[in-house]
Amino acid sequence: VNLQTDYGIPIQNNVPLCRFSTLQIGGPAAYFAEPGTREAFLPLMAFQKHDNLPVLIIGRGSNILFSDEGFSGLVISLRKFELDRIQFSPDGSVKVSAGMSLFRLSALCQEQGMSGLEFVCHIPGTVGGACAMNAGFGRAASPYREIKDVLRSVTILDLLNSKLRVVTRDEIKFEYRKSSLDKEIVLDATFQLTPSTREQVRDEVKANFTYRNSVQDLRYPSAGSVFKNPKKPAESAGKLIDRAGLRGTRIGGAMISEKHGNFILNVGNAKAVDVLQLIDLAKSRVFEQFGVELEPEVKLMVPGLSSPCTV
Ligand SMILES: Cc1cc2nc3c(=O)[nH]c(=O)nc-3n(C[C@H](O)[C@H](O)[C@H](O)COP(=O)(O)OP(=O)(O)OC[C@H]3O[C@@H](n4cnc5c(N)ncnc54)[C@H](O)[C@@H]3O)c2cc1C
Questions:
Q1: Which among 35, 56, 206, 278 is placed 20 to 30 Å from 305, CA to CA?
Q2: pLDDT band, residue 306 (cuts 50/70/90)
């Protein structure tokens, strides 16, 4: 099948995935597409079905470790998907494309003086990725919030019949940094906001950025926190990794941050295997010393492991 001629879709071969990951790591995708519209999206699914290819949906790749071998199927990036789709309604909701960046969404909410999404203002992902991951954030003076607290519904593409379906929040299973949406293709999301003022929203956004800058290590490419925080009463994953003496540990081009034990940085041409070795090291040291099993938050697209984000 020739997608370009048979379906009229620009599709690329052998696209390096390191360009689409905030860690800047990853080998080539056999097929890669960035549909801008639903019309361009649907035929991609026809192509996928025809060749029975595994599909991976990505947003900004800010929570994924791609393998050094790449991905042998079709990667669909939503980075450019329906970027002008945003609709504020009089009932206080906002409906946005899954491809919209969280930075932009929170800026637009601020402009409207609508509150509710300030907690995602600094997260470098898309709306779709945030829904799939149930992204969350909190700081001492402001309670921890997750996507599930503000999400009303999403529109998904049902792969069985290529039809669109609206799924309400109650139908979605949410856990800490996990949702049943990571097996779906989210095309848009509707959030419930509350009326506020531009100034109040701006102040909350500023405070979140200030706190984020003080705790996270943003000097080098990363995928944010690598591990989920274990259930209480254990300490945070970052603290446990610090206490295991692993801050600053380097393997190849990857290093556990000296500032934040839960960040692994690409300090120079890191390979996925370097990051995976650091992950294994942190897991085993923390288990030996504290009996706590750390679970990765970052999606590991590595052969041999299950591929949690393929649909
Ligand atoms: C510096 C830094 C700071 C961070 N801080 C935070 C933080 O404070 N809180 C937090 O929760 N996270 C944080 N993250 C992690 C990350 O930004 C979030 O998980 C984000 O929501 C991922 O969005 P994305 O678009 O990049 O998703 P991707 O990384 O591209 O994908 C993540 C998962 O979502 C799935 N997915 C993506 N788009 C869709 C879609 N449209 N439909 C269905 N599934 C989809 C993918 O298949 C994959 O399983 C941080 C990351 C970095 C690099």
A1: 35
A2: very low
Kindly state if the Cβ of 65 falls inside 6 Å of ligand 1.
no
Annotated catalytic residue 297: yes
Each residue's pLDDT tens digit, 241-277: 999 999 999 999 999 999 999 999 999 999 999 999 9
177 in catalytic set: yes
> If you search the block for the tokens 């003022």, which residue do you land on?
197
Catalytic residue among 67, 118, 153, 177: 177
Does 288 qualify as catalytic in the annotation? no
pTM for the structure as a whole? 0.95
Q: Give me the phi and psi of 165, to 5 degrees please.
A: -140, 135
For residue 289, the CA-to-ligand 1 centroid distance in Å is 30
pLDDT, mean of residues 123-140 = 96
* Whether residue 198 has pLDDT greater than 50: yes
What band does 51 get if pLDDT is binned at 50, 70 and 90? Answer: confident
Q: Helix 102-112 to helix 198-215 angle, to the nearest 10 degrees?
A: 150
**What does DSSP say about strands 174-175 and 178-179: parallel, antiparallel, or unpaired?**
antiparallel
Any atom of ligand 1 within 6 Å of the Cβ of 222: yes
**Of 17, 15, 13, whose CA–CA distance to 61 is shortest?**
17
Query: What span, in angstroms and rounded, lies between the C-alpha atoms of 241 and 260?
Result: 9
The one-letter code for the residue type at 143 is P
Helix (H, G, I), strand (E, B), or coil: what is residue 185?
coil
- CB of 285 closer than 6 angstroms to any ligand 1 atom: no
Nearest to 183 by CA among 18, 50, 55: 55
pLDDT grade for 1, boundaries at 50, 70 and 90: low
* pLDDT over 60 (residue 308): no
Tally of residues, the chain = 311
**Residue to mutate, 24, 32, 58, ligand 1, most ligand atoms under 8 Å from C-beta:** 58
Atom of ligand 1 nearest to the CA of 99: 41
Amino acid sitting at position 134: N
